[in-house]
Amino acid sequence: MIFILAPLAILAAGLLYQSVGVARDRRRFPAPGRLLELGGAKLHIYEQGQGSPVVVLESGIGASSLSWANVQPQIAAFTRVISYDRAGLGWSSRTRKPRSVPVMVDELRSLLTAANA
Predict the structure, then answer these.
(1) What pLDDT is stored for residue 19 in this prediction?
(2) How far apart are CA 42 and CA 85, in angstroms?
(3) Which residues contact 53 (CB under 8 A, 6 or more apart)?
(4) For residues 4 and 6, what is the distance between their CA atoms, to the nearest angstrom?
(5) pTM of this prediction?
């Protein structure tokens, strides 16, 4: 019995630790941009600069908009530039939608429309 309860207790402690850490980090490090409500999820978008064309920065794999922190201000010197966090990454909330390319493209399109980009 102890061989079943001990790993479950360790797992529960780890999950609690992670949840508390995530909540603490959200308070300590607020989103630098804005959160837009789109279809049940809040997606984070960070905009800088003015002008046309609008440059959209896409982060790779599991990265967030912070990947562009050094590049975005340089682009913003001559045009409008947007970085964002896909659902479930960075400051964006999770969504129940599958993480497929068509779904993520649709989310980005909706986000840019909501941001008037």
Answers:
(1) 81
(2) 10
(3) 79
(4) 6
(5) 0.78
Q: Please state, in angstroms and as integers, the Cα–Cα distance from residue 69 to each residue in 18, 41, 59, 72, 82, following that order.
A: 26, 24, 11, 6, 11
Q: Whole-angstrom Cα distance, residue 83 to residue 85? A: 7
> E strands of 39-107, at which residues?
41-48, 55-57, 81-85
Residue where the block lists tokens 């947007």:
82
Q: Tokens for 45?
A: 């978008």
CA distance linking residue 10 with residue 95, whole number of Å:
28
Q: What residue type is assigned to position 92 of the chain?
A: S
Nearest-angstrom CA–CA distance, 94 and 89: 8
Whether 117 has a pLDDT exceeding 80, the answer reads no
